[in-house]
Design a protein that fits this description.
The chain is of the alpha/beta class and 339 residues long. Strands 3-4-2-1-5-12-11-6-7-10-8-9 form a twelve-stranded mixed sheet, sandwiched between helices. Helix 8 packs parallel to helix 9. The longest helix has 17 residues. The N and C termini lie close together (9 Å).
Length: 339
Amino acid sequence: MVRPLALTLGEPAGIGPDVTIAAWRQRRELALPPFYVIADRDFMAQRARQLGEAIAVAACEPGEAGAIFATALPVVDVGLPVTAPPGRPDTSSAPAAIAAIDLSVRHVFAGLADAVVTNPIAKNVLYRSGFPEPGHTEYLAKLAALATGIAVRPVMMLWAPELAVVPVTIHLPLRQVPAALDADLIVETGRITARDLAARFGIARPRLAIAGLNPHAGEDGAMGEEDAAIVRPAVERLRAEGIAARGPLAADTMFHAAARATYDAALCMYHDQALIPIKTLAFNHAVNVTLGLPFVRTSPDHGTAFDIAGSGRADPASLIAAIRLAARLAARAPAANAA
């Protein structure tokens, strides 16, 4: 049974509502799978009018979304009023964004949705409301653990047809990265990446390319000892477990076309080492995928873009790619508690 995808509202003052409306407008020409957005029906209708979009917006339950999708944008009530105007978060922003995430996960575990697609949140807005998690990924892992009773280790992967990258450390100042890296972290990240590439992406024996931390992967210790002391032992452990891993590799030669053809995902030691190449190659259509969860979660690879919210200039390409990828992955890994 194919269920709709659950899209979260994200930050209501950002471009999440805009790209959701734009994606729904292109549903026929792009043959998009059915989805619904967890939001406020009146808010979404008002945003559509602000964008000059004469579309039908229908309140519904998750089970009704598939039938409604062809003729109206299905909106499942978030249960809270949403009042934030474009570009200006207000007191409804954080509660609505968090409630939409909570409901999306609940719907997946109840078998009402096949996957979760999250629109961008504004972390600073959430933090001011007392939100205790670093971001979306950690909060989703917490919700999954509460639902299953099993601790979850989430891994962020940025995926596009051209390249898939996994940052081993993510939002850390560069000076803190060497201290945060250890072989256990690299090995665990590699295991989760290889497992989900096999289970969800259908790659029989995933090939992992492991970047070095330092220029030229340390140049035999001349440019730093971490690659020989931390990265290489981690690669050896992964190989001993039967995972097709190689490295540490010089990051400056890992991302040209011929090199990319030799691996399925690149594990990178820090944020920009991973995100610069994929945003260079696939700026408008890269997708953020959370590995390690007991359900499929994707997200567009961009932020809230307050400066263009409500203007009609937001590009829905990344959200469309996230919707398509979520449906593809969910077809291989059905909803967490589906019958």
